């Protein structure tokens, strides 16, 4: 005998109730079409169009030839560009580690108990809202040969320590990193503060009652509880570090002698200053691929496995 | 029609109308930009004019436009752009079809706003015979393509070293006759807390200009057609004794204390402050900059000199029309005609002389009889005797050559790299395009 489902009548006919229109409608998928269309046109079509030029020798004006992978071969053969790649990775991973370490330390310090924590949070977050260019120009003044750092060293009687901080090949990249970290640590602190707010104090108190020390509570309770914040802060900082541009251009312009060039500054210079649009597009495509790969690795490393 | 259907239709109309209104406003904006400037007063056709500027004071081009309007009644829509982004903006606007009708370009093909690549791309209009007649034979190759002239030069810009004669007298220093005397003077000045040269080491173009100034007597005085020989593959930067001497002299100057303290990190402010305060006796800058600094710093007397040659070498200067004017090929016919009429007006000797005076440069022809600005008195004989070469990078095949030279020398001054690798990189940039 044929089984009859509850939605069917005895005769097997479909008696499923008709879908009724809800009384309050919040929207329709097609409302998003203009935005989707704009995103597709502005982001994806434009990017694909730009990527096409990576396989040409276009100078930015006039006609061009299709040259296959020639631009990519030139990138690999150019020691200057490999130097830029090393600088980019140094800045990206230095930025990732330092902002996360300092950001987490500040978030832990300003999470509870301290009375002045709200004021301190504002003060530390303030540089984040400033323009990276404005911040970089202030730091350029600080690092200047006649700037406050060297004047302070002179006041201490250590003229022999005075140096052009942004023009020393061994120091310039560190100077750029310091400025990047100084400006962005406040943002990472806020991300971790949001994560720490979700950790119930009772669990930590229970851990303390069970005899766990400060480090033990941090390692076994706090850190696993803020895994989502770690993933967000890590990915954001890595991507931001890989595409660093403003700070380098404002502080050193890529100098001295290319010592602080990054892939992003090279993309700009090759495309716009040197009129090698095709070559610049190839570099940009490579930078995009690098960012995608490292972001995927980062996501894999920090994903929740519970 | 039901009430519900009418509501949906209203919402749909709003959905379409908002982006449509946005698109229409955007296209309206672009249409007004494409119009090619002011239509002029009365029945006289006006045109737009784009030029670079580095200061907030009135540009000589702005003054020129005002003079033309006052004299002819033709309105000029003067558009200025910052020097550092001028080339990029100009190329983008030309490619996008919304550039000005008339614009300032650089002769040759060595800069990002150079005339020849733009002419090859069909973005510039060939000029009339009146404009062609203004171009001296020596500069035809920098401004002509397939027998047609694409840019009209306005004047000659002498480039050597800007010498602060007032500060030099105060320091008891005389302009050195050759490199040996120069290095000795550097040591004397260091002892007095001054420097011979104020260098903007953090700005590669300033370092590049220094190298080109040195190359005048060390390369182009002996081999005026060196650039052509390089193009033919007969010489190279890395193997050339003159260019090796240029780099070696810069290294000696760096080690000999010729630059101010912290020169590797110095910006352009180091030059203006050094010259204005007299803490540095000289700087590498185009002649026009001397006029600008003197106008802004009271009591400072500057003059242009040829950089000291190597011992036993010949005094030689760089001087060429570093700027010229071109007409946009995509401009409307009436505006092209108006711009061409302006160029022909500028070509008249009395108007050219007036502009030269405003700009503080040297007339494009007839230097011998011309009344030069006081800062050029020291190089008048060199100019009149033809002892000068055009700015080398005007004839270099692409902007990367100058970029590599500037960047490499910047690194060398900061202690990065060596002379051989700098010159090899310049050769590579030359051959790569």
Helices, strands, pairings?
The complex is a heterodimer of chains A (306) and B (433).
Chain A: H1 33-53, H2 70-77, H3 79-109, H4 117-129, H5 132-143, H6 148-155, H7 169-196, H8 201-209, H9 214-225, H10 227-242, H11 246-251, H12 263-273, H13 277-302
Helix pairs in contact in A: 1-13, 3-7, 3-10, 4-7, 5-7, 7-10, 8-9, 10-13, 12-13
Chain B: H1 3-34, E1 47-53, H2 60-72, E2 76-82, H3 86-96, E3 102-105, H4 115-120, E4 124-125, H5 129-132, H6 140-143, E5 144-145, E6 148-149, E7 152-153, E8 155-159, E9 161-164, H7 165-170, H8 179-191, E10 195-198, H9 204-220, H10 226-231, H11 241-255, H12 268-277, E11 280-283, H13 287-296, E12 302-305, E13 317-320, E14 324-328, H14 333-347, H15 349-359, E15 362-363, H16 380-384, E16 388-389, H17 399-413, H18 419-431
Parallel strand pairs in B: 1-2, 1-3, 10-11, 13-16
Antiparallel strand pairs in B: 3-14, 4-14, 5-6, 7-14, 8-13, 8-15, 9-11, 9-12
Helix pairs in contact in B: 9-11, 9-17, 17-18
Main interface: chain pair and counts: A-B, 36 and 41 residues
Biggest beta sheet summary of chain A: none
Q: In this structure, how is the largest beta sheet of chain B organized?
A: 6 strands, mixed
Q: How does the overall form of chain A come out from the CA principal axes?
A: globular
Enumerate how many helices of chain B there are, as a single number.
Answer: 18
Q: For the terminal residues of chain B, how far apart are their CA atoms? A: 69 Å
**Rg over alpha carbons of chain A:** 27 Å
Uncertain residue segments of chain A: 1-12
Structural class of chain B: alpha/beta
Average pLDDT value of chain B?
A: 85
Helix content of chain B: 40-55%
Oligomeric state as shown: heterodimer
Total helical elements of chain A: 13
Q: β content of chain A, as a range?
A: under 5%
Radius of gyration of chain B: 25 Å
Terminal-residue CA separation of chain A: 47 Å
């Amino acid at each position: 005998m044929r089984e009859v489902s509850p939605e069917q009548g005895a005769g097997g006919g479909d008696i499923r109730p008709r879908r009724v229109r809800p009384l309050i409608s919040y929207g329709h998928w097609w409302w998003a079409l203009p935005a989707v269309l704009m995103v597709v046109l502005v982001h994806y079509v434009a990017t694909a169009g730009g990527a096409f030029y990576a396989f040409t020798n276009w100078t930015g004006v006039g006609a061009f030839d299709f040259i296959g992978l020639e631009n990519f071969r030139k990138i690999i053969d150019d020691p200057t560009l490999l130097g830029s790649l090393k600088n980019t990775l140094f800045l990206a991973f230095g930025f990732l580690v330092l902002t996360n370490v300092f950001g987490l330390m500040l978030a832990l310090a300003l999470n509870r108990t301290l009375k002045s924590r709200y004021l301190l949070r504002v003060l530390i977050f303030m540089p984040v809202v400033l323009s990276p260019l404005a911040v970089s120009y202030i730091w350029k003044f600080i690092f200047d040969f006649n700037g406050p750092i060297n004047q302070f060293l002179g006041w201490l009687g250590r003229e022999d320590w005075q140096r052009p901080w942004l023009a020393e090949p061994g120091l310039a990249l560190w100077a750029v990193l310091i400025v990047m970290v100084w400006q962005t640590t406040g943002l990472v602190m806020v991300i971790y503060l949001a994560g720490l707010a979700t950790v119930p104090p009772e669990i930590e108190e229970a851990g303390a009652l069970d005899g766990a020390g400060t480090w033990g509570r941090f390692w076994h309770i706090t850190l696993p509880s803020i895994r989502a914040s770690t993933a967000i802060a890590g990915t954001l900082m890595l991507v931001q570090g890989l595409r660093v541009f403003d700070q380098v251009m404002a502080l050193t312009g890529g100098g001295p002698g290319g010592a602080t060039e990054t892939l992003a500054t090279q993309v700009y210079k090759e495309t716009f200053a040197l009129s090698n649009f095709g070559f610049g597009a190839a570099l940009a495509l490579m930078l995009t691929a690098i960012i995608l790969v490292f972001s995927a690795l980062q996501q894999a490393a920090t994903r929740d496995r519970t | 029609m039901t009430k519900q259907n009418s509501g949906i239709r209203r919402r749909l109309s709003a959905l379409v109308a908002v982006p449509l209104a946005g698109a229409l406003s955007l296209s309206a904006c672009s249409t007004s930009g494409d119009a090619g400037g002011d239509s002029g007063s009365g029945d006289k056709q006006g045109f737009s004019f784009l030029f670079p500027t580095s200061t907030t004071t009135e540009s000589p081009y702005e003054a020129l436009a005002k003079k033309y309007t006052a004299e002819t009644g033709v309105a000029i829509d003067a558009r200025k752009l910052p020097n550092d982004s001028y080339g990029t903006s100009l190329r983008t606007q030309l490619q996008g079809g919304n550039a000005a009708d008339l614009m300032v370009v650089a002769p040759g093909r060595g800069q990002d706003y150079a005339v020849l690549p733009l002419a090859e791309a069909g973005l510039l209009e060939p000029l009339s015979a009146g404009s062609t007649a203004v171009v001296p034979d020596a500069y035809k190759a920098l401004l002509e393509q397939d027998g047609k002239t694409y840019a009209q030069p306005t004047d000659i810009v002498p480039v050597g070293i800007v010498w602060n004669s007032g500060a030099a007298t105060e320091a008891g220093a005389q302009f050195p006759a050759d490199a040996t005397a120069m290095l000795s003077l550097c040591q004397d000045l260091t002892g007095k807390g001054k420097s011979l040269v104020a260098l903007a080491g953090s700005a590669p173009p300033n370092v590049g200009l220094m190298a080109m100034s040195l190359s005048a007597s060390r390369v182009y005085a002996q081999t005026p057609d060196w650039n052509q020989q390089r193009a033919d593959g007969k010489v190279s930067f890395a193997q050339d004794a003159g260019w090796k001497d240029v780099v070696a002299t810069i290294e000696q100057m760096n080690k000999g204390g010729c630059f101010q303290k912290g020169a590797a990190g110095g910006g352009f402010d180091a030059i203006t402050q050094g010259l204005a305060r007299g803490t540095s006796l000289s700087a590498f800058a185009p002649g026009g900059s001397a006029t600008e600094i003197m106008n802004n710093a009271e009591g400072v007397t500057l003059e242009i000199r040829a950089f000291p040659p190597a011992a036993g070498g010949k005094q030689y200067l760089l001087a060429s029309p570093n700027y010229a004017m071109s007409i946009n090929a995509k401009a409307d016919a009436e505006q092209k005609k108006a711009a061409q009429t302006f160029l022909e007006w500028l070509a008249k000797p009395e108007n050219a002389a007036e502009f030269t005076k405003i700009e503080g440069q040297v007339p494009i022809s007839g230097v011998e009889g011309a009344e030069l600005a006081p800062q050029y008195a020291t190089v008048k004989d060199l100019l009149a005797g033809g002892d000068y070469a055009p700015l080398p990078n005007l004839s270099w095949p692409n902007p990367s050559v100058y970029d590599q030279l500037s960047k490499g020398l910047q690194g060398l001054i900061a202690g990065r790299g060596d002379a051989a690798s700098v010159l090899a990189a310049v050769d590579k940039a030359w051959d790569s395009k």
